[in-house]
Design brief:
There is one protein chain. The protein has 14 helices and 15 strands. The protein has helices at about 10-20, 25-40, 50-65, 110-115, 160-165, 185-190, 220-230, 275-290, 310-320, 325-330, 335-345, 350-370, 415, 445-460; strands at about 45-50, 80, 120-125, 135-140, 140-145, 145, 150-155, 170-175, 190-195, 215-220, 265, 295-300, 375-380, 420-430, 435-440. The chain has a single domain (about 5-485), classed as Amidase signature (AS) enzymes (Alpha-Beta Complex). α2 (about 25-40) runs antiparallel to α3 (about 50-65), α7 (about 220-230) packs antiparallel against α14 (about 445-460) and α9 (about 310-320) crosses α11. The protein is an alpha/beta fold.
Length: about 475
């Protein structure tokens, strides 16, 4: 196998080849590092490269295999970690100049679990500032470009994770999702992104976003997401919201039949604007998935859908208002959209916040009642395909000083409700930009979402698609500054 192809292999394939001594963890890592070097900083998915330590880990992994030592399920598999997750002794910038020199004192549990499973952590990926927006830009790292079109949004806040997955920087990329921040980068960059049920994967520190932030994988295959999720999942004492039970056997049960499941489809949740090319691709994908599942696709307008925008926007700005104390000293260094959002949220008082929580809890109850009648809900992952940076909204959309949520109406409801949801690549616009189909499952039915995703992947395989900016011709190694960042 050509060395330059190792970086495109799936995690499952790499683990198998390493375990059977066909390839070395060092060879795999070197191929991944070479691909990243070719494509950085043109894509700008990496905020910190951990090359020296990663090579040391890869050599140790190679020695363990050759010595016949017990190895984990991710032995020798390269992984990236988003810059919102702390890793002890490393910079923890969270995409902000405020924390440019902050060094983490502890490591998030899910990072430790990946390492314990044998993964080689080789890079930290970019994020929008504090994960506040769906735009792949931050004051500290600048723009992360969509691998399918330079100068276009790659989605956020897990911007670098999605772009790195699409561009062949290895198979596994960790993200977080507070209003769509795993699913939006997956949608924009043409990869698979899973937001598991709330609490499935422990987070640290626990987000202040009123129990909406989820940890999840961005990968090029569903099987890789199943494997990565299974490794990261399970209760942990540092996260009091983590689920008590261990995860199901996602890998072993991935290809069980999904025939007969009740599948609903909502093109707009009763209120959302959707660009026509996105709407067409998503509808066709929903019909194909239902047909493959041997079931009828039921088009619905959920009663709770129209209630989402007011609740979603209120809590997005109100929770970010927790950063209001930063404005006096740091306003000039913060993302202007974040400043506007903080100021908007600061208008709300405690009593109003509590009244809105009552409405929010009623809204969540209605979502779960809906899933008493359906096993899966299909929607667009987002309303638009990628658009030029650094815009918060496409030019043809209503403009606002912070409200990027207008094109992300399909994702945040399931952050509030905690349902598992995934974005699966379902086609390209005429401009060659990816589009994602969102698959939402009942609370705790992460396995069902993965199984439906795997069925769609079988019907509409996507992993062989490679974006233009990931090709050797598009990436000029003479311009790379990655190792100096």
């Amino acid at each position: 196998m050509a060395d330059q192809e190792l970086n495109w292999l799936s995690a499952n394939e790499i683990a198998r080849l390493v375990r059977t001594k066909v390839v070395s963890p060092v060879e795999v890592l070197q191929s991944v590092l070479a691909q990243a070097a070719r494509c950085e900083p043109q894509i700008n998915a990496v905020v910190q490269l951990l090359e020296e330590e990663a090579l040391r880990q890869a050599k140790n992994a190679e020695q363990a295999v050759m010595s016949g030592c017990a190895i984990g399920p991710l032995h020798g598999v390269p992984v990236t970690i988003k810059d919102l997750a702390p890793m002890r002794g490393l910079p923890h910038r969270s995409g902000s100049k405020i924390h440019r020199d902050r060094i983490a004192s502890e490591t998030a549990p899910m990072v430790t679990r990946l390492a314990d499973a044998g993964a080689i952590i080789f890079a930290r990926t970019t994020t929008s500032e504090f994960g506040w927006s769906g735009i792949s830009h931050s004051p500290v790292s600048g723009p992360t470009h969509n691998p399918w079109k330079h100068g276009y949004n790659a989605g956020a806040s897990s911007a670098g994770a999605g772009a790195a997955a699409a561009a062949g920087y290895g198979p596994l990329h960790q993200g977080t999702d507070g209003a769509g921040s795993v699913r939006m980068p997956a949608h924009f960059s043409g990869v698979y992104g899973l937001k598991p049920s709330y609490g499935r994967i422990p987070q640290y520190p626990v987000s202040i976003g009123d129990l909406t932030s989820h940890v999840g994988p961005l990968t090029r295959t569903v099987a890789d997401a199943a494997l990565m999720t299974q490794v990261m999942a399970g209760p942990h004492p540092w996260d009091f919201t983590s689920l008590e039970s261990a995860p199901a056997d996602y890998q072993g049960r991935l290809h069980e039949q999904v025939q007969g499941r009740r599948i609903a489809f909502s093109p707009n949740l009763g209120h959302a604007q959707v660009d026509p090319d996105v709407a067409m691709l998503v509808r066709r994908a929903a019909e194909d998935l239902a047909r493959a599942a041997g079931t009828q696709l039921v088009e619905v307008t959920p009663s709770w859908g129209i209630l989402g925008p007011e609740i979603g926007r209120f809590f997005w700005s109100a929770n970010l208002a927790g950063h209001a104390d930063l404005l006096d000293k740091w306003q000039e260094h913060l993302d202007p959209g974040l400043v506007a959002c903080i100021r908007d949220g600061s208008r709300h008082g405690v009593s109003q916040y509590q009244r809105m929580r009552v409405r929010k809890h009623q809204y969540i109850t209605e979502i779960h009642r809906f899933f008493e009648n359906f096993d899966l809900l299909l929607t667009p992952a987002a309303s638009v395909a990628a658009f030029p940076l650094p815009r918060l909204q496409p030019e043809h959309w209503p403009q606002h000083d912070w409200d990027w949520i207008s094109w992300a109406e399909f994702s945040y409801p399931f952050n509030m409700s905690g349902n598992p949801a995934a974005s699966v690549p379902c086609g390209f616009t005429d401009e060659g930009l990816p589009v994602g189909l969102q698959i939402v499952g009942r609370r705790f039915d992460d396995l069902g979402v993965l199984q439906a995703s795997a069925l769609f992947e079988k019907v509409r395989p996507w992993a062989r698609n490679r974006p233009p900016l990931a090709s050797a011709a598009a990436c000029d190694p003479m311009n790379s500054r990655m190792t100096g960042r």
